[in-house]
Design goal:
427 residues; alpha/beta; Rossmann fold; Tyrosyl-Transfer RNA Synthetase; Structural Genomics Hypothetical 15.5 Kd Protein In mrcA-pckA Intergenic Region, Chain A; six-stranded mixed beta sheet; Tyrosine--tRNA ligase; ATP binding; ligase; RNA binding; RNA-binding
């Protein structure tokens, strides 16, 4: 698998990753460089099924897998059917343990979700693996003798998240998570010739434990690195929108809402996000960075990021629909060309009100929350600031009929240039 967006002249893979800020820690810079810039190597990255879907917080690792495969390396995408039943320790409190049958369903959903990001054909074909395959077969005695024997407790206690939990309490279940993840690296090295693991910087303790464990078992050498945690410059958590987490599953976060999340990126963050997530060349990204600095109001970097990632996660068609909806809602495109799903998703983001019958336009403006009162609604209409389906309302007592409904059930209301809401006729 190759791609024209890979650095093929000016930068090696390692140099490109470093320029993008994608390598935070590594077990050995020289050894890692030799592995990344050398012939095809097998690497792995893990995803625990703690929810029915991955979210944008996982996107860094998903995109990195694609990036490394495009460079010629072979991905092992591990979905933790075993580790997902235990849970990596959190700093605050114990995780809620989900039933095994629920986790099994999430494993399959996440496996399906990872499929579009890599290719399963060719010399460096990706492979999906589940650590329940080897962990589930081990007895308690085997686990303690073969795995636990190689882990000094003092090193396990030194892990930051463990130290943070010692006073409030941490169960042996979560304390032992590190052993399970370390054993994954050993098993993947033994079974598939895996020589490289990466993950988020919060996983550094688990990852280095795996590198050390492979060595203690007389295997290796193996290497590892971490990517930085993605943050927002305003202090809010990355991966959250006003309506909650931004999921990769289109049923949990619509492609339109996904597109809007990236489109609304802060100017202070967007160039960093482009380096992290985009497959554009260094020259293209530097041009976008320059354009953002010179004309931030044009939001060219945000549009480029939103379009590329929406197409990557949801496909070109959904990306085109999200772009069309973003334009049409503000009067720069045809509303009737949007699919019912895209239109509803867009209106839901803005505020969608369900009604059993249609009042006059003034009543619609009030019911939708665009104005606080009927008096204000009539004033907005009289001043020419009210729109229904992007058509200016000329009469204060104007009404709408079922023939005006988009897809037989929706109306798009707008006040002025930028405030809009939706109405859905129930029944």
């Amino acid at each position: 698998m190759t791609d024209s967006n890979l650095p093929q002249g000016r930068d090696s893979l390692t140099e490109d990753l470093q320029w993008r800020g994608l390598i935070q820690d590594s077990t050995g810079p020289d050894e890692l460089r030799a592995l990344l810039d050398g012939p095809s190597a097998t690497f792995y990255v893990g995803f625990d099924p703690t929810a029915p879907s991955l979210h944008v917080g996982n996107l860094m690792q998903v995109v990195m897998a694609r990036r490394l495969q495009l460079a010629g390396h072979r991905p092992l995408l591990l979905v933790g059917g075993a580790t997902g039943q235990i849970g990596d320790p959190k700093e605050s409190a114990e995780r809620t343990l989900n039933p095994p049958e629920v986790i099994a369903g999430w494993v399959q959903r996440i496996r399906d979700q990872l499929s579009p990001f890599v290719t399963y054909a060719g010399d460096n074909a990706a492979q999906l693996v589940n650590n329940l395959e080897w962990t589930g077969q081990m007895s308690v005695v085997e686990f303690l003798r073969d795995v636990g024997k190689h882990f000094p407790v003092n090193k396990m206690l030194a892990r930051e998240v463990v130290k943070a939990r010692l006073e409030s309490g941490i169960s042996y279940t979560e304390f032992s998570y590190q052993l399970l993840q370390a054993n994954d690296f050993f098993e993947l090295h033994r079974r598939h010739g895996c020589h490289l693991q990466y993950g988020g910087s919060d996983q550094w303790g688990n990852i280095t434990a795996g590198v050390d464990y492979v060595r203690r078992r007389g295997a290796g050498p193996v290497q590892a690195f971490t990517t930085p945690l993605v943050t927002k410059s305003d202090g809010t958590k990355f991966g959250k929108s006003e309506t909650g987490a931004v999921w990769l599953d289109p049923e949990m976060t619509s492609p339109y809402a996904f597109y809007q999340f990236w489109l609304n990126a802060d100017d202070r963050d967007v160039t960093r996000y482009l380096r992290f997530f985009s497959f554009r060349t260094r020259e293209e990204l530097e041009e976008l960075e320059k354009a953002t600095a010179e004309r931030p109001q044009a939001r060219s970097a945000q549009r480029a990021l939103a379009e590329e990632l929406t197409a990557l996660v949801h496909g070109e068609r959904e990306m085109a629909q999200a772009v069309a909806a973003s334009q049409a809602l503000f009067g720069r495109g045809a509303l009737d060309e949007l699919s019912p799903e895209t239109l509803r998703a867009a209106l839901a983001e803005a505020g969608l009100v369900g009604l059993d019958e249609l009042p006059d336009v003034a009543g619609l403006l009030k019911e939708s929350g665009l104005v606080p009162s009927m008096k204000e609604a009539r004033r907005v209409i009289a001043e020419g600031g009210a729109y229904v389906n992007n058509t200016r309302v000329a009469e204060v007592d104007a009404t709408v009929s079922r023939d005006d409904l988009l897809h037989g059930r929706y109306l798009v209301l707008r006040r002025g240039k930028r405030s809009f809401a939706g109405v859905e006729l129930r029944g």
